[in-house]
Amino acid sequence: xxxxxxxxxxxxxLAILLGAAVGAVLxxxxxxxxxxxxxxxxxxxxxxxxxxxxxxxGVRVGxxxxxxxxxxxxxxxxxxxxxxxxxxxxxxxxxxxxxDRDHVVAAAGVAVLRHTREGRPAAWWRYDPRVxxxxxxxxxxxxxxxxxxxxxEVYAVSGRHVVVYSVQLDRWTPLPADPLExxxxxxxxxxxxxxxxxxxxxxxxxxxxxxxxxxxxxxRRLAHVRSTPLARTPALPIPAARxxxxxxxxxxxxxxxxxxxYDGLRRVLTxxxxxxxx
Length: 278
Known about the structure:
The protein is mainly β. It has a domain at 101-225: Neuraminidase, CATH 2.120.10.80. It is built from 1 helix and 23 strands. The strands form 6 sheets. Strands 2, 3, 4, 5 and 6 form a 5-stranded antiparallel beta sheet that branches. The protein has a 4-stranded antiparallel beta sheet with strand order 1-23-20-19, with no helix packed on it. It has a 4-stranded antiparallel beta sheet with strand order 7-8-9-10, with no helix packed on it.
């Protein structure tokens, strides 16, 4: 009695299983299916075309996530781009070796990199992933700080000036000098839709963070500095490395790459990549 029903149901079951397998392949964006795991909202991505490493630099540029350099004993001078639309990785050659000691921001679909050099002024580069082209920035203002970005512009501090680099014009333009006293030390800039804010410390209050805001007309010292809340990082899946991994927010999603795990006392580098969706 049960054999006819089983024979009729078997094709349907096989079709469901086949559809699930195909869906997993499409979801991963490559011929490597997403690995099943017990961690809600985490999916393992296709293996990046990079050697295992720690301390890589990461940034989102449009619909791509860039993983740059890193360490494998010494600093490395290659990277990869991950396309959030297709789920595909592409190997990236670089003109220099970088780690997370350096800084990178994205503006107008271009990555702008500040590369720290021991005993020498920092070098600045830009990378356009649409044409896979690196170029070095020339005619830099002196003593540029760590950058911040908004829209198509990159902001940095140079002395008492905030200087603005237009990615589209390839040109630096200074804002009016900040004349407020006491002058801030260790100045850094944050550009946002609420305005351009420079933070730092005064000599008389070395542990109190102060901020000067440019409102488009003049500089004003803020009475209270509100810290920007950091995005809450979800607990990493066990197979993902917790030491020296690269974490890049892409909208509400978090891409995690590389890092080191420990097998007893042995340090093991990985080149796995994961994505967390809200």
